[in-house]
Structure formats: structure tokens, C-alpha cells
Design brief:
flat
Length: 256
Amino acid sequence: MTTLRALMQPHRIVMLLLLVAVVIWCAVTLRWDWIPEYAPLALEGLWRTIWIMVVTCILGFALAVPLGLAQAVGPWYLAAPARAFCTIIRGTPLLLQIWLLYYGLGSLFPQIPWIRGSELWPYLRQAWPYAVLALTLSYAGYEGEVMRGAFSSVNKGQLEAANAFGMPRLTMFRRIWLPQAIRNVLPTLGGETILQLKATPLVATITVVELYAVSSRVRSDTFIVYEPLILLAVFYMIIAGIIALAFKRLEDRVPG
């Protein structure tokens, strides 16, 4: 009932009516006859977008935890490289990082005989490993700085109490420090995950076929410009909404 009352506010009713009008206008005046032909390619691009985002976020966060910990409490010989890595990643464009890895390492590997003859070569000759590596390092660089603040924000009294009771450092980290740090930055992690989703179109510049690459393919084949972009925006909004909802549910379930 409360939700219904919130939706019945005048400004929200006007926005809803405008949205319905835009949807009807798009359905009636724009061309959508190309969808059946490109639907399989679009589903492939959607799947690739999702798995690239999920894999790079998981791997990037796994790297961000030691990066943040090194900066928060590590000795200088660990803190300095971690800080330098985060600074470089955050200070350079992601597109530049993708190109440096793809056109740099990607052009260097073919000149090394033992790499060309290894079992990794069928993968290294493709574009997607460099896209995954670039997005993983980018996510790690940003989240490493976030985790630095998260580790520093955990109440030191709890850590001192656990240490006084003789709890091993690894157990203390696993049961107290890391869970509380993650809980403190869950809203930020949700926002960064959505930003990671929005960064995936950049991998189309190195021939990885994801959602944006599919819309570009439709535009180049049919000369239809607006319809693929509108549909692309809808897909991204739906995925972003699911991510935001998932993190909101996770925040509600995690005890404060």
C-alpha cells in the first residue's frame, strides 16, 4: 500500500505517462524489423557482456583485497607498489590500458617462439583475454583504493580484543576484519560494479563482440542508427537495475 501511494504522487504519474508515450512512439514510428535477424548475435553479445563483467569483478576484487590491505597496514615495500599501481590505473584512461595490453602484449607474444608453440597460444591470439585482463586490473585499481579506506575504517578495538584473546591473525582477518570492511563498502561496490558494466563497450574496440559491438554491426549493415542504440540502452538499464537490486538485497541481509 505504501509503495502504491508513493507511485501515485503527481510528479511520478507525469513521468510514468511520459515514459509510456515514449515507448508507444518508439514502437509505432521506429523500425524494428531487423531484430529477428540479429537476435542470435545480440544474445551472444549479451552473454559475453555479462560474463566479462562478472569475471573481471570477481578477479578484480580478489586483487583489490591485498592491494587495500597492503596500503592500509603493510610495510612500505608492499604499500608503495600497491599505491603506485592504484595511482597508475586510476590516472590513465581504461581505453588506453586496453590498447596497451592488446596492441602491446598482443603484438609481442607472436614474436616469442615458445609462446606460439604453447597450449596458451590459441587463447592469446584472441582479443578477449586482453579485455578481461585490462578490465580486471582497472577494477582492482579502483577497488584497491576503496578497500584501503574500508580496512582503515574497521574499529581497531575489535582487532585488539581478538588479538588479546590469542586469535590467529589469519582467523582474525577472515572472521572480523574482512567481513566488516566489505560490509562498510557494499554500496560503493554496487556502484563500481555498475560502472564496470558501462566500461565493457570499450572492449569492442579490440574486436570483442559484446552488446555495443552488436549495435555497431546492425548500424553498419542496415544504416539504422537510433533503434539499436535505444535497445542497447534498455539492455544496460535492465542489467544495471538488477545489479543495484542485488546489492540492495545484500546490504539488507548483512547485519549492521
